[in-house]
Design a protein that fits this description.
Largest interface: A-C, 32 and 32 residues
Strand order of the largest sheet of chain B: 2-1-5-3-4
Helix content of chain B: 10-25%
Order of helices and strands of chain B: EHEHEEE
Number of helices of chain A: 3
Oligomer: heterotetramer
Number of strands of chain A: 9
Number of helices of chain B: 2
Strand content of chain B: 25-35%
Shape of chain A: elongated
Structural class of chain B: alpha+beta
Order of helices and strands of chain A: EHEEEHEEEHEE
Distance between the termini of chain A: 29 Å
Largest sheet of chain A: 5 strands, antiparallel
Shape of chain B: globular
Largest sheet of chain B: 5 strands, mixed
Helix content of chain A: 25-40%
Number of strands of chain B: 5
């Protein structure tokens, strides 16, 4: 399965992918499109990717998470046009222990933001648009 | 001179008006030479002082020597996730 | 919606419940039935609850999470007979910031384990069964 | 003497053979008196030395005086989640 998708992300499917009879703790994170950004009303947005490199980085992040912790990791990032409320990124971690699940889930989302070549263009209610610079949340 | 194609994305693609541009570089040209050549293109003067250049999907520093077979790309600050 | 359910837990529905146009970060935790416990092969298990008190405690936990952090929290715990892989507990947190989402999600699962009157009886492959004492994982 | 019903769960219900038992306590009896009475029931001697008693869904300490209208329950160590 590709890490980038232009279809709606099925987070439940990611959870099923990492579930296993010995993985009793499944932690997920979904980042979805908010209707405001820095006080401006957002109506939709577009994610653009350097596809080949983004796929490689996502694969590397999953591999690294699975070597740092005894977990199974799954990851998808949406590209193309997104509406308010759509999932932009989804992560699922299957772990034997919830400590490790939470730690790995948190690590993966930070790695995605730091390493995967994807860019976000927001379109505002006033008709303007902007490439969004990364912000530390 | 060797011919190098450079992929552009997001804001940089808008600045230079294309998702891919070509630059002519001397043999043994470095990443820094490539970025300097990109600056001479229309809109290239609006690039930041130290844009990130990646070669074959890995970030390179200015001193790295490029090969015409390399896949080059200039990456704006990432904003995924 | 009751916090305790004898039906399969629909974790995706919990995520939808806490999603909102201003909650860009949804964190979930699912604890599911593992096939082994302390080295013994588990074939199924039963959760028993002090229903009235468990419902009150779950409501209190959600209320406290929502007052500690600017989040929306949802929680369900399964009771009755569960099969291997079934979700025993599911938590979903909708947050504006992922830091707060992760913190609240982690806090809720610990509070559930510490405060909600629910007991687990495991049935093993060798035909025996046992009430499981809580373990610190 | 007053009549008090006590809910039992899980391992404690197995020990005493019922999900609910009745104990007769003196007027102004405390939570500790209630637990002592539970110990005199068949199987009650197998209860731990300090089982958790809850009254109207809140844990009470031994000195708390009980009322016949209270909902009482004896809780084994919790194992949800």
């Amino acid at each position: 399965m590709a890490f980038l998708t232009s279809d709606l992300i099925d987070a439940a499917a990611l959870s099923r992918d990492v579930g296993a009879s010995h993985h009793g703790a499944i932690t997920t994170f979904i980042g979805s499109v908010r209707d405001t950004h820095n006080g401006r009303a957002v109506v939709r947005l577009t994610y653009t990717a350097y596809h080949a490199m983004a796929e490689l980085e996502c694969a590397a992040i999953v591999r690294e998470a699975e070597s740092r912790w005894p977990v199974r990791a799954a990851l998808q990032h949406r590209v193309g046009d997104l509406q308010i409320g759509d999932a932009a990124v989804a992560i699922a971690i299957g772990a034997g222990l919830r400590d490790e699940g939470f730690a790995a889930c948190r690590w993966v989302i930070e790695a995605v933001k730091r390493r995967v070549p994807i860019w976000k263009q927001e379109f505002y209610a006033d008709g303007t648009d902007a490439w969004v610079d990364p912000v530390t949340l | 001179m060797t011919h190098h194609r450079v992929l552009l994305f997001a804001r940089y693609a808008e600045l230079l008006g294309a998702g891919e541009v070509a630059v002519e570089l001397s043999h043994d040209a470095t990443a820094a030479d490539c970025i300097a050549a990109l600056r001479t293109l229309p809109g290239g003067d609006l690039l930041p002082s130290h844009p990130v250049l990646v070669r074959n999907h890995a970030i390179v520093t200015g001193a790295v020597v490029l090969d015409p077979s390399d896949e080059l790309a200039l990456l704006p600050p990432l904003a995924g996730g």
